[in-house]
Amino acid sequence: MRKPERPHEHCCCRATRQATGSRWKEVTSERIMSPAATDAAESKPPDGGWGWMVVVGAHISIGFAYSTPKALSIFFKEIQEDLGASSSEIAWISSIMLAVMYAGGPVSSVLVKRFGSRPIVIVGGLMCGVSMVTASFGRSIVYLYLSIGIIGGCGLCFNLNASLTIISKYFLSKRPLANGLAMAGSPVFLCFLAPLNQFLLGDFGWRGSLLILGGMMLNCCVAGALMRPVTLSCNPSAVAALKNMETTTKHNMSKKGRCLTNARQFLDFSFFKDRGFIIYLMGNTMYIFGAYAPIVFLSAYAVSQGVEEYSAAYLLSIMGFVDMFVRPGTGLIANSKWIRPRIQYFFGFAMIFNGACHLLCPMMTSYAFLVGYAVFFGVGFGMVFALIFECLMDLMGNQRFPSAVGLVTIIECFPMLLGPPTAGLLVDLYGDYKYLFYMCGAVIMSGGLFLIIMNILHYHMLEKEKAEHNGARRSPETGNQDGVSLSEAQREPTEAESAPMNRDPQDPSTDDTGPDITDHF
Q1: How confident is the model over 353-368, as pLDDT tens digits?
Q2: 222-236, 255-269, 286-300, 478-492: which has the minimum mean pLDDT?
Q3: Closest CA to 56 of 182, 183, 231, 187
Q4: Average of per-residue pLDDT across 387-415
Q5: Closest of 55, 150, 167 to residue 103, by C-alpha
Q6: What is the rounded CA–CA span in Å between residue 306 and residue 450?
Q7: Average pLDDT of 344-355?
Q8: For residue 450, is pLDDT > 90?
Q9: Cα–Cα distance between 229 and 204 in angstroms, integer?
């Protein structure tokens, strides 16, 4: 009689399955998990609570990060006359500042992983304040390149990347809305910084204005203080198992292996194996090249059409005011069940709309028409920047996003650096601003069309690969993917092949965050 032995056999089988599952989890975790131990053991993000205070802090830091290079254009005419610089030379100030902000992405990502978002944002705020104060004493254009461009750009970089990263940790299902509210900081701050800078310029000159602006930017330190680390409930045994696994892994790793791991955290080139990431990067690079030049030269173009200086400065405020409402509205639309699975197409449409506005701008010669251009420009610009990082999160997932955004920003620094000076060169060569709007509009529209066409091909290939996989190995459940993007549903098909059990596609917590080590086989 074998009945008394069956419990023992059952325990042995279950122990074998648990051992096999643990080994699979260890291998899979080493392959896809973030180096941060706490990330791997996270449960579902809170999607609220203190996260909304974090959104307020991100709203402030991102607002200064994106609005400062635009609002500084109010001072460019006075700086150009005072220092005797050309239009192309003066445009390098914003270009260097934006390029450094983007190029410092990998460094900022590593620092955020090491120290967290709160101290990085505080340090970034201090650097921004110091940069503007030191720039107020500048006597040459090169001095402004160093103070505003290099130091200020580094501070803005710390503010931007740390804010985006902590939002991805606090939110998942409400992430598009949270991103839209945080990114709305750019138009909100631009809306009041543009007329404020014009007022300060008239009363204190560009040097005194930069001094006051530096003091205002110290508020980023207050915003950073709101970004306390996220605390998630975890299985204690899972955390202990993860720590033991990491201890064993670190003990077995050689010095060379640790160096390679650290280098991979700094720049992870494995993203270039992802077809969706390459499509996103190419389209986004084309957009960034033409995105900022129209903003830098909008006030100067209006003045050249006979518009009074204060009215020309208000064009940026009008654009910012419209942008202020468009970004959270776009976040709500992107979070809908119909749009979110097609968010990459929505992103391409926003780029095409933005480019079309620039192509029509040279036809706007009166102030009333320029106001209309500013309104539509704000709509297009707000749509793009409400989606630009959400689309990257959609493609890469929460765990890979910090490294991905660092790589994207360092690549985008090159078109960011060359865009406004190239537009300024066209102004110097032809003595007319309309050619820069033609150039920017054509490049941006091309990028939007590229994204839509290539994503259609990309998703068609994913469906074909999925059909081939299902034909070879039929999955028992397909599940409903409403409310989850195509990229999230179809990301990493090889992981599904290697998994011994199916993940529920309706559970947002499975959004590319790696296997949940609290599961039991």
Answers
A1: 999 999 998 888 788 8
A2: 478-492
A3: 182
A4: 79
A5: 150
A6: 37
A7: 91
A8: yes
A9: 41
Hey, what's the torsion of the CAs at 61, 403, 389, 442, to 10 degrees?
Answer: 110
Secondary structure (DSSP) of 277-345: HHHHHHHHHHHHHHHSHHHHHHHHHHHHTT--HHHHHHHHHHHHHHHHHHHHHHHHHHTSTTTGGGHHH
Q: Hey, what are 178's tokens?
A: 């949270």
Count of residues making up the chain: 521
User: Which of the 8 DSSP states describes residue 362?
Assistant: G
Neighbours of 412 (CB within 10 A): 23
The confidence band for 32, taking pLDDT boundaries of 50, 70 and 90, is very low
Q: Is the dihedral of CA 116, 118, 120, 123 positive or negative?
A: negative
Q: In 10 A of CB 435, how many CB atoms?
A: 16
Dihedral angle over CA of 7, 10, 11, 13, nearest 10: 160
Reply yes or no on whether the pLDDT at 335 is more than 70: yes
Q: Cβ of 32: how many Cβ atoms within 10 Å?
A: 16
Q: Which domains does the chain have, with CATH numbers?
A: 51-230+261-459 (1.20.1250.20)
C-alpha distances out from residue 319 to 296, 336, 513, Å: 13, 26, 37
Tell me how far apart the alpha carbons of residues 517 and 521 are, in angstroms, rounded to a whole number: 10
Name the token pair of 44. 């579902």
Between CA 185 and CA 70 the distance in angstroms is 13
Give the pLDDT confidence of 403-414 residue by residue, as tens digits: 787 778 778 888
Please check the confidence at residue 56 and state whether its pLDDT lies above 80: yes
Q: Whole-number mean pLDDT of the chain? A: 76
Q: What angle do CA 175, 181, 186 make, to 5 degrees?
A: 130
Of the candidates 276, 316, 288, the one whose C-alpha atom is nearest the C-alpha of residue 457 is: 276
DSSP 505: T
> b or e along 112-122 (b: 16 or more beta carbons within 10 Å of the residue's beta carbon)?
bbeebbbbbbb
